[in-house]
Amino acid sequence: MSAQDVNKNSRRNFIGTAVKAAMVTAVTGSQLNAIASKEKVTPILNPIVTPNSSPVLVGTSFTQLPLPYAYTALEPFIDALTMEIHYNKHAAGYAKNVQEAAAAENVNTNSNLETILQKISSYSAKMRNNAGGHYNHELFWNCMKAAPAGVPTGMLATAINNSFGSLETFKSQFADAAKNRFGSGWAWLVVGADKKLAIGSTANQDNPLMDVSTFKGFPLLALDVWEHAYYLKYQNKRADYITAWFNLVNWDFVAARYEKAMQ
Ligand code: MN3
Fold it and tell me: Tens of pLDDT along 157-202?
């Protein structure tokens, strides 16, 4: 057998293994769904966006909404187990805790979370961490969709080109914001009070709507750079996670939020 044949063979074996691994993942994903339905957890395949609801997700509720796709939908860039733990444990925890904080601090949970965030300095640290955590994740899920990402369109595409020169320059600057956020936090694309696009980051579960944030604006695009968002697949390689994540950006959602912000 020539070296080339050996190469072909090992490549075939690798592909076989990869296909098998994908099948195992698919089964795991559907088993998770089955477990979810048995435990009367909200089904995860229901879309958030219905014909009667705004696709821009303005007016975030205190309740965790169903994921707009299956746990497996973002593979291979974000694995199903990471998504399952992230949505069902981490994000579900913020949703539960923000409701506890609201009850303790006499906040009406029928109000929009945005109004609380804008005056978050009036509330407890528990409210700040969990109102932020809940809001950020509800936004984050909608900022992603199954690959491929496509490209920004319409007014957003023009604004990105005008502000950053090109989509590639935008991605590079956004990735730098995400890489350089020390410890846990988020990277953002926002529309500022001056109606201009800006890139920045916040620590922990803070976000640009909060009165306590030094980086302010209306968030269009959010990237979670807490280790829980990537560690199972990427370990310490945050930069690789960020590069992969660009394959998942839901530009239609971002463009709809931009148009809303510019009205
Ligand atoms: Mn998270």
Answer: 999 999 999 999 999 999 999 999 999 999 999 999 999 999 999 9
Q: Ligand 1 mean position to 140 CA, how many Å?
A: 9
In the chain, % of residues over pLDDT 70: 78
The whole-angstrom separation of Cα 201 and Cα 208 is 8
The alpha carbon of 226 and the centre of ligand 1 are apart by a number of angstroms equal to 6
Res. 10 pLDDT band, cuts 50 70 90: very low
Query: Tell me: the pLDDT tens digits for 230-244?
Result: 999 999 999 999 999
> Residues with Cβ within 5 Å of ion ligand 1?
224, 226, 229
Q: Which residues of the chain form CATH 1.10.287.990?
A: 3-142
- Please give the sequence-ordered ranges of beta strands (E in DSSP) within the chain, or none if there are none: 185-191, 197-203, 218-224
- 15 Cα: distance to centroid of ligand 1 (angstroms): 32
Kindly report the pTM of this predicted structure: 0.80
Tell me what pLDDT residue 24 has.
38
Rounded to the nearest angstrom, the distance between the alpha carbon of 261 and the centre of ligand 1 is: 25
Question: In angstroms, what is the span from residue 245 Cα to ligand 1's centroid?
Answer: 14
Q: What is the CATH number of domain 3-142?
A: 1.10.287.990
Q: Which fold has domain 154-261?
A: minor pseudopilin epsh fold (3.55.40)
Give the C-alpha separation, 76 to 92, whole Å.
23
| Cα–Cα distance, 65 to 92 (Å, whole number) | 10
Residue 137 alpha carbon to ligand 1 centre in Å? 6
Give the CA distances from residue 122 to residues 114, 126, 132, 210, 211, in Å, rounded to whole numbers and listed in that order: 14, 12, 14, 11, 10
CA of 119 to the centre of ligand 1 (A): 22
Residue 167 alpha carbon to ligand 1 centre in Å: 25
Q: Which residue has the higher pLDDT, 52 or 136?
A: 136
Give the residue-averaged pLDDT of 224-233.
Answer: 98
